[in-house]
Task: inverse folding
């Protein structure tokens, strides 16, 4: 969205992107029940067919610091008829304000294609993109022109004005607002053959799975479409999403999308041509039930096993370093013994702070994992050495860096558990690895 990124994104290393789309016709699941009152012979089982497929792939490779080559191709088939095309584009960054691109393409459904695209920053907050193309076919030369003018309205909002002339002429304007917790789009198009208005909202949850819930309304001369859905991160490089589309006269569809790194797998499933409540219900509930079942039975065990393998590998790679730090910590504890003896004598004389026991590492509280080895070290002496004037204050940093400490379980969550005596009364406290700790509790 930001203009400054429009140039820099074209200087990255070679990257490949791909999309595989498989269209599924599942209308027999719902529409077949309309035939119960008709004398039409048929199978007792609904027929689900793959009626269209689309595969596209592209690779973007820098040639020099200013030149980039982009090779892309696609294949499509629908109801037994198909075709494909291949394109080569050469892009040059002419200055910090713009770049130009030449495009050459050919396909079995049309003749050669020649195109020119130009990007230019007009001001620090405004840019323009123009794309003109000539497509040769048996019907002659078919020219096309697309121009997009964009402007930053504020830090999170962009405004776009698009004019398209040629095979499908249209004027489109849209406003896109993207924040940390939401994404909002409103658009309007006047054109031939389609004119429409669209409103779309997406809410981003601030959880580790990066869950997003979205909904949109699109109305025009073609009819009305309502869409709602959600997407969620299921692994480090994979995002799974599902969208339900309900419209007139399109009917009900379920769209499933999986993004895996730079590859996209898309499965639009057409359920019915009519507005059937049963189709909407199953399209909404079905993916949720399947997802939660798969997440519990397949995804979570797989991610847990993967994390354990990574931790084991990390431990193997850092074994010698951990051993060295352990020896250093033990040596530091031996040097602390005399100082700790004097501190304890002084604290006992004033009935101050005495560290009875202290442990640092991973504590397992889950009964299902009670047989797992608890990875903790005794840090009673190092903590007592840090007591000053009957107070112990630890800042918000990993405790593994304290004198006499080391990390007994690299890569895992750790805690500090302390049993201490103050004014003759025993107390116990537990703090996370990066959590600040102040004892006794009344210490400010």
Result:
């Amino acid at each position: 969205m930001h203009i400054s990124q429009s140039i820099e994104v074209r200087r990255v290393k070679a990257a490949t992107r791909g999309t595989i789309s498989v269209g599924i016709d599942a209308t027999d699941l719902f529409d077949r029940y309309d035939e119960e009152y008709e004398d039409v012979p048929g199978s007792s089982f609904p027929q689900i067919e793959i009626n269209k497929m689309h595969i596209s792939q592209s690779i973007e490779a820098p040639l020099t610091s200013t030149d980039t080559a982009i090779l892309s191709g696609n294949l499509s088939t629908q109801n037994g008829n198909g075709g494909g095309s291949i394109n080569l584009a050469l892009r040059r960054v002419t200055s910090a304000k713009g770049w130009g691109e030449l495009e050459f393409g050919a396909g079995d459904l049309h003749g050669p294609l020649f195109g020119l695209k130009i990007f230019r920053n007009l001001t620090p907050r405004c840019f323009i993109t123009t794309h003109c193309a000539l497509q040769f076919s048996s019907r002659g030369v078919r020219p096309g022109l697309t121009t997009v003018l964009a402007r930053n309205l504020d830090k999170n909002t962009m405004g776009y004005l698009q004019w398209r002339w040629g095979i499908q002429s249209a004027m489109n304007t849209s406003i896109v607002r993207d924040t940390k917790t939401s994404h909002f789009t409103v658009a309007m198009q006047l054109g031939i053959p389609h004119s429409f208005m669209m409103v779309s909202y997406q809410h981003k949850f601030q959880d580790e799975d990066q869950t997003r819930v979205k909904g949109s309304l699109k109305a025009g001369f073609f009819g009305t479409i309502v869409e709602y859905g959600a997407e969620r991160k299921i692994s480090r490089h994979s995002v799974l999403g599902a969208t339900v589309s309900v419209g007139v006269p399109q009917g009900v569809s379920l769209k499933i999308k999986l993004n895996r790194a730079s590859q996209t797998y898309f499965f639009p499933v057409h359920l019915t041509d009519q507005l059937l409540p049963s189709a909407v219900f199953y399209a909404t509930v079905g993916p949720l039930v399947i997802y939660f079942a798969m997440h519990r039975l397949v995804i979570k065990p797989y991610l847990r096993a993967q994390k354990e393998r990574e931790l084991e590998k990390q431990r193997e790679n850092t074994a010698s370093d951990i051993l060295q730090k352990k020896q250093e910590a033990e040596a530091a504890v031996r040097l602390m013994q005399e100082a700790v003896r004097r501190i304890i004598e002084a604290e006992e004389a004033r009935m101050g702070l005495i560290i009875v026991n202290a442990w640092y590492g991973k504590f397992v509280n889950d009964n299902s994992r009670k047989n797992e080895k608890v990875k903790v070290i005794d840090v009673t002496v190092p903590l007592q050495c840090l007591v000053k004037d009957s107070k112990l204050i630890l800042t918000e940093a990993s405790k593994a860096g304290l004198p006499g400490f080391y990390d007994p379980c690299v890569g895992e969550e750790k805690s500090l558990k302390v049993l201490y005596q103050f004014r003759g009364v025993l107390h116990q406290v537990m703090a996370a690895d990066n959590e600040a700790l102040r004892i006794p509790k009344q210490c400010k």
Summary: The first helix runs from residue 3 to 8. Helices lie at 3-8, 277-349, 380-385. Residues 1-12, 367-373 have pLDDT under 50 and may be disordered. Residues 310 and 316 are 10 Å apart (CA to CA).
